[in-house]
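P.,

For your records, the input lines for the assembly:
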Amino acid sequence: GAGVSQTPSNKVTEKGKYVELRCDPISGHTALYWYRQSLGQGPEFLIYFQGTGAADDSGLPNDRFFAVRPEGSVSTLKIQRTERGDSAVYLCASSPTVGTEAFFGQGTRLTVV
Amino acid sequence: GNSVTQMEGPVTLSEEAFLTINCTYTATGYPSLFWYVQYPGEGLQLLLKATKADDKGSNKGFEATYRKETTSFHLEKGSVQVSDSAVYFCALSDRAGGGNKLTFGTGTQLKVEL
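Structure tokens returned:
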């Protein structure tokens, strides 16, 4: 595709449920990043991948959050036992490699009710 | 740790007015600095960047100069247009290209009126 694609664009889930958010990076981009943006705030770093491996996951808030990128392309952010405080826009970005410009998707708006 | 502070919005200007959005940062080492823009209904886009002290980034009439002595990277435009209405984010990174982690400010909403 032409840009970074994130699905779904909106997700409403009940407290305690499990959710998966998907990111399709730009073809050929080896670096992939996840950020979380709460209302009225700037994006906050969660994790980034170089290829299939998580190079830095220091931004994941707790062990309910996990992300994978098994084939070095599509990535899935997984959130277990969702809480109302997890409600935010989750942004994905990709870049040709680490150290080059990152291109952002439009995000998935997650609402936990 | 790294942090970015930018002026709160919303900032409301008339078309053709001069724009300044202040941004200051705290970082260890020598970060790269960025301005991102988010137009309504769209994803974040890189507007401009500067990778070392005294560098000036520029794009679409916007400019920002990396001032290490004042740890600032203020965004300026001489004459804004209605189409510049958006949310602007100042950010820094420890890597020149913005890879690795980006640390963002809280964003400043700009509204330009006729």
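Two observations worth noting. The two ends of chain A are 33 Å apart (CA to CA). The CA atoms of residues 18 and 26 of chain A lie 27 Å apart.

Regards
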